Amino acid sequence: MYAIMGVTGQVGGAIARTLLKDGHRLRAVLRDESKAGPWRDRGAEIAIATVEDAAALSAAFAGAEGVFVMVPPDFAPDPDFSSARAAAAGVTASVVAARPKKIVALSSIGGQHQSGLGLITQVHILEETLAPIAIPTAILRPGWFMENSAWDVQPARETGEMASFLHPLDKPYPMVATADIGQVGALTLTQNWTGRRVIEIEGPKRYSQREIASLLGTAVGRTVTAREIPRADWEARFQAGGTDRPAPRIEMLDGFNSGWIDFEPGRHEHVVGTTPFETVLADLVRLG
């Protein structure tokens, strides 16, 4: 049996669905009982626990062959990332108490760095906190989520423009569908290994902002143009969008644009997924 955190989110949900499809027993770990129904209907066991309650989370992990762990994402974290540190500590205490046979943890491209990561600092903290544990651990470091383009669907429909914070517009970036991350995460949980693994994940090709705008145009049925947002405008734009502490997001974007946030070629396992951006965009347009 596998215990999976974050099943109501993109990656945890993709891992859980893949495991169930492949016939594995699943314990879905949720924060909110009201969201448990669909997972019970799929045949999963249910455990209600949060990262703030290490005892409940330990009970959720107890008896598991393997666990998938993550820290809840925060897009406007405290300057000292205190919430991420507390969450990582709670997760770590729980797996130490439960002693599953293996751990798969969600990190990110660039998660190896100690600074210059912005929002990605949160998963770097989880990597560091799990590092001393003597349980086989696999760290997933996916590229930029293709599903982040959900924010672009409505403006593309209405204005024919796609605002871009990744610069320059012709530079291809490693991106990946969460379905592919789910496939890798589920497969990894069913494997046996010793020590620590790092698994980088990207899609079948790299995409520039201009190319994504063109694909988005096809999906929404009109011409869409990528428009580079000047860096000097980022803070005000993010604040206007409701982000009261935009500095971590800006630092992350700077890291991508400078090349600081990237994979480590030749150092780790590197998996290339199969889901093209077109498939993800079609789903986003259909759902949006």
What is the fold's blueprint, element by element?
Layout: E1 2-5, H1 10-21, E2 26-30, H2 37-41, E3 45-48, H3 54-61, E4 66-69, H4 82-98, E5 103-106, H5 121-130, E6 137-142, E7 144-145, H6 150-159, E8 161-164, E9 175-176, H7 178-189, E10 196-202, H8 209-220, E11 225-228, H9 234-240, H10 247-258, E12 269-272, H11 277-287
Parallel strand pairs: 1-2, 1-4, 2-3, 4-5, 5-6, 6-10, 7-9, 8-11, 10-12
Helix pairs in contact: 1-7, 3-4, 4-5, 6-8, 8-11
Order of helices and strands: EHEHEHEHEHEEHEEHEHEHHEH
Low-confidence stretches: none
Task: List the total number of helices.
Answer: 11
Q: From the helix content, strand content and strand pairing, which structural class follows?
A: alpha/beta
Rg on CA atoms, Å = 19 Å
Shape: globular
Question: Would you kindly provide a written description of the structure presented here, covering whatever features stand out?
Answer:
With 288 residues, the chain is α/β, with parallel strands linked by helices. The chain has a single domain, classed as 3-Layer(aba) Sandwich (Rossmann fold). It is 40% helix and 17% strand. It is built from eleven helices and twelve strands. The protein has helices at residues 10-21, 37-41, 54-61, 82-98, 121-130, 150-159, 178-189, 209-220, 234-240, 247-258, 277-287, and strands at residues 2-5, 26-30, 45-48, 66-69, 103-106, 137-142, 144-145, 161-164, 175-176, 196-202, 225-228, 269-272. The strands form three sheets. It has an eight-stranded parallel beta sheet with strand order 3-2-1-4-5-6-10-12, with helices on both faces. A two-stranded parallel sheet has the order 7-9. Helix 5 (121-130) links the parallel strand 5 and strand 6. The longest helix has 17 residues, at 82-98. It is globular. 43% of the residues are buried. The model has no long low-confidence stretch (mean pLDDT 97).
